Structures are given as C-alpha cells and as structure tokens.
Amino acid sequence: MDKKLSLFPVSTKIIDDKLTIGGCDVRTLAEQYGTPLYLYDRADLDSAAGLYRRFLDESWAGRWSVTYAGKAFLCTAIARWALGQGFIIDCTGAGEIGIALKSDLPKEHILVHGVNKSAEDLRAAIKHAGTIVVDNLSELGRLQKLCAELPRANIPELWLRFQPGSSVATHAYTQTGHADSKFGMGREELLEAVRICRQNDLPLVGLHFHQGSQFRDPEPLGDGIDRALDLAKEIGFKDNWHLSPGGGWGVAYHEDDLPQPPIELYVRFVAENIMAGCKKRGLTLPHLHLEPGRSLVAKAGVAVYRVGTVKQTAGKTWLLIDGGMADNPRHALYEAKYSCLTVEKVSGSSTQVVSIAGPYCESGDVLIEQIPLRVVEENELIAIPVSGAYHLSMASNYNGARRPMALMLEDGQAHVIRVRETVEDLTRRDDE
After folding, report:
1. 362 and 284, same structural domain?
2. Which one of the listed residues 147, 278, 340, 361 is annotated catalytic?
C-alpha cells in the first residue's frame, strides 16, 4: 500500500478508507464530473518545479532556464502555471503555439521545436516565438526565405538541433539521439547550417540535442554533452550562447520502478559535466536550458475510471472500464506498466489478480496486466497514478471516444482545466 501511495501526487491522503487528492474526495469528484476523469494536483506540480529551480541554483554557475515540454500535456491552465513558475513553453508547431498565445505567454517564453515544420508552423514561430530550434537544412532553407525581408531584430533566435549519435537507455520508440534517428543534424550537416546562418545574418545563438525520454541513468548524457561542446568550440560560440541537452528524465510508473529517480541526480550530472567540459575546452558557460515535461507533470496526474463489467475468461479476471487506449495509449505503444488503487475501501486486502482493459475494439486496449487488487465489483471506481503526461496529449477519438475532462485540485477546490468532449464535438469538423 505504501509503495502504491508513493506513486500518487504529494497531497494524496486516505481518509475514512477513501482516496483524497488536493483536499478533494475523489469519489465525490467522479460523481459530480463523471468518468473517465483526469485530476491534476497543483501541490505536486509546484513541488517538482521547485526541485528543478533549487538544484539548478545549487549546481549551475551561470544563467539557466527551464522549458516545459508542452508535448507532455498542454492546455491554457498548464501553460499559465508554467509561466507563473518563470518557465518557457516548448511548442511543436502552430497548434501548440496557438495554445501558448491563448494563455497570454509573451514571445520570450515561447520556444518552437519540430522535426518537419510546415510553412504555417514556421510563420507562426517567426511571428510569435522567441526561439526556433532548427532541425534540418531543408527547414533552414524555408526559414531563410520567410525571413529574407524581415529586419534581423524581428527574427527569433535560432538554435540548431544536433544529432549526437548516441541515445539513453530507454524504449526504442523514445530514443532520439542515435545516428539513424529522424531528429536533428549530424556534425557535417550542422556545420553547413552554421555557414548558411552566418552568410545570411541569421541570429544563430545556440545548440540543442536530445537523447531520449523516460531514462533513469544520466551517464549516457555525458557522451552527448562532450560531442555538443566539441561542436560549440568548433563553431566558435563565445559569450551569450545557449545549450540545451534536452530533457526526458524518468518517473516511476509502478511500484517495481521505485525508488523514484531523483531530479537532483539528473540536474547535477548535467550541470557538472557541462561546467567541466567548458573549462576543459576554454568555452564560456552557456545559458543552460533543461526541458522537463514528464518529470514535472506525470506524477501530478491521476486518471479515474469506473468499472462497467467484471468478466471471467479462461485465464484472467478482467475489469472492463470506461476509458483505455483512447485516453492513454502508452501501454499499447510501449507496454508501459502502471499501478492502481480503488477509490474506496482502499486498504482492502489484495485477494485476486486482475487485468484492466477499456471498451475499445482492439485487443491492445489494455491498461494494466495482472495486478493484485481486492475483489472489485461493477460500478466501483479505480484510480491510476502517474497519468499526467502523454495521456491527454496523445488521446484520440477512436471508436467515437470523447476525450476526458481534466480538473486542477488545490486546497480542497477543483477547477475545470479541460472540458469533456461531447458527441457534437465529434461532428463539428464534418462536411455537412
């Protein structure tokens, strides 16, 4: 029980054998707002953000920034929360830029990524962003044409995305830095991008690289850092340059993943290796940027579902719930392993082993395989922790699913931060 509870947000408590988060009774929220329901704990978000600020202050001798990776989960409330923390928002394309603008983010707090930015994406980035991370030479050519008639002061700062040729230890689908990855430029291509930027007076000020997501060991970052600093020296960056070694620090999703990998380990490794590497190469310290998404928001989120059917097959007991791969595709994509608690009678003895699956017409629509729980009856509620990242942002309308409501919980109050989709929403874009 204690291990499972440690996966839930920091404000989680068991009161009268019922689950509460942010001072709110989870059963009451489910009855009021319906299920599936996503709950975000403001206290957990603030705690994770505070750890990044603290350890960067303690570990890094120069300027630093935290960039919240919008792809983990982005809505106007989360964007405004990140701005309130002093963070930048990493946007991929015109859609996420639009969310940032709706959230009243100033230009200097918008950074744009993307491996194949369209003309629309680039125009939005030029107009609204403070920084554009250029992924490849084709993109740079399109960007150059769009900026040709603009004063240099109106062009966002540019970083080049470097492909270091090595990745972190994680699932193959979330590795990004290896030599045949679709992301970034190898050394020769990147040096050609530098030449084009300088020839056309484009404001090149930094480098970015990323080696993968959901990793727990920072050691492989050392190789990427060394290669990026070698390249920075070759480019000739001097004062006021920027370096981002990406993000992707992991979180514990299941009690087997415990202990939670400490943010301090990641931040100190990056800071100490970059400072030592700059000293060795005679480089001035860059403005350091870290890009956490998952490790800021994943643990803050809890998904609440209602059990509709309990089904016994030849080899399994199934709890069939009212959500699944349409709001959380991570098990289907990566075989991600989750944990679970019942919302009521939380302390009940785990006397049966069940698998938890959704209502969708796919055999892969499974959220949890074989987990010990107390006997759960139809119409009961279950809560799956560590649901704050890469669930709602990857959600779909498969089988006509309507994407769930999300609430922010704080001091006993629940605030709607995303409304539940309706049947009418499903046909709004159709040609009548």
Report:
1. no
2. 361
